[in-house]
Specification:
Largest sheet: 2 strands, parallel
Shape: globular
Number of strands: 2
Strand content: under 5%
Structural class: mainly alpha
Order of helices and strands: EHHHHHHHHE
Amino acid sequence: MKKKTFYTELSYVLGIIIMAFGAAFTEKADFGMSMVVAPAYILHLKVSQILPWFTFGVAEYAFQGVLVLITVIVMKKFKMSYLFSFVTAVLYGTLLDTAMGIISPLPETAVYIRVLWFVIGTVCCSVAVSLFFHTYLSPEVYELIVKELSSKFNLNINKVKTAYDCFSTFLGVVMSFIFFGFGVFEGVKLGTVICAFINGFLIGRFSKLLEHFFVFKNRFDIEKYFI
């Protein structure tokens, strides 16, 4: 079977859009946020009580801005791709708030409906990360860290992703306890734990599926600016 060409720039655009809607559907389900975004979501819940304009989207790129600084410290260097990752975070945060507004009229009372939203959100997030792994354009800082660590220490990227997801889940639990009291799980619930253990697997499967049907190529000769 002859594989079709899939431009990496399109992979980037679709990744941002699908990720935004994935997070929005997960929030709608209320079974717990994806472990990657749980810390930012909990930060949003707390700060928005004082600053109403501190939306989920704003919390996302504020939190990822801190992660950029951590990445620079761990890698002991700064690259332009780190800055571009923050730009991606801002784009994603803006689209996230838009996506939440679009799906807000959808029903959320029946349990089976919430399960559906959770499944859609989980699948969307996994597909989005798979797309990000197939583009030279800087992904969100969450994916940037995974790519940088796996490259620096020559580790399997899917295993590093799973490890990072588990760490984010732990961080979310700690933040929830600190902000809302011990034993209170805000944003971190059963769905969060499930995502932590299956996202790495799903991302790997979706990546193989994409590579089975497509050959990823650059449409524009600008990759050097993102290294």
